[in-house]
Amino acid sequence: QVQLVESGGGLVQPGGSLRLSCKGSGFTFRYYVMKWFRQAPGKEREVVAGITIDGGRKSYSESVKGRFTISRDNVRSTVYLQMNSLKPEDTAVYYCNTKIWGKAYWGQGTQVTVSS
User: Fold this and answer.
1) Average of pLDDT values for 86-109?
2) Side-chain-side CA neighbours of residue 44 (13 Å)
3) pLDDT value at residue 23
4) pLDDT of 96
5) Angle made by CA atoms 69, 102, 91, in degrees to the nearest 5
6) pLDDT on residue 115
7) What's the rounded Cα separation, in Å, for the pair 100 and 45?
8) 18 in the Ramachandran plot: left (φ > 0), alpha (ψ -120 to 50) or beta?
9) 60-84: pLDDT as tens digits
10) CA 66, CA 49: separation in Å to the nearest integer?
11) Could you give the dihedral angle defined by the CA atoms of residues 38, 8, 116 and 16, in that order, rounded to the nearest 10 degrees?
């Protein structure tokens, strides 16, 4: 079955960095677009970044553009989110996502807390 497992979250001070990882299994990872979403308390889940199957095209929300970088390693079936210059408003649970035959799949999420 399709599984997405995120890791790498934690507590970091404003201005700090974290790298999130999401390993996929149960599907042919290299065939699918991958995305990162986040959900802050009391807010709707929002897309943060996306990457095409070969990594050739990347997209970012305006709130993270220039600070976050999405990448993927199709050999390791893993998508990454490098987060720099973190702000308190980046605090959220971060989820990776893919869509296969129209069905969305989500990981369990990893908590990122930006606080001094």
Assistant:
1) 97
2) 2
3) 98
4) 97
5) 35
6) 97
7) 19
8) beta
9) 999 999 999 999 999 999 999 999 9
10) 12
11) -90
Map tokens 């009391």 to a residue: 42
The sign of the CA dihedral 25, 27, 32, 37 is negative
Owner of token pair 């605090």: 91
Q: What CA–CA distance (Å, rounded) separates 11 from 6?
A: 16
Distances (CA, A) of 96 to 15, 50, 74, 82: 23, 10, 15, 13
d(CA 110, CA 44): 16
Per DSSP, the residues of 17-76 read -EEEEEEEESS-GGGS-EEEEEE-TTS--EEEEEE-TTS--EEE-TTTTTTEEEEEETTT
Per-residue pLDDT tens over the stretch 9-28 = 999 999 999 999 999 999 99
Residues in the chain: 116
Integer CA distances (angstroms), 55 to 3, 39, 59, in order: 20, 24, 11
- Ramachandran bin of 10, using left for φ above 0, alpha for ψ from -120 to 50, beta for the remaining angles: left
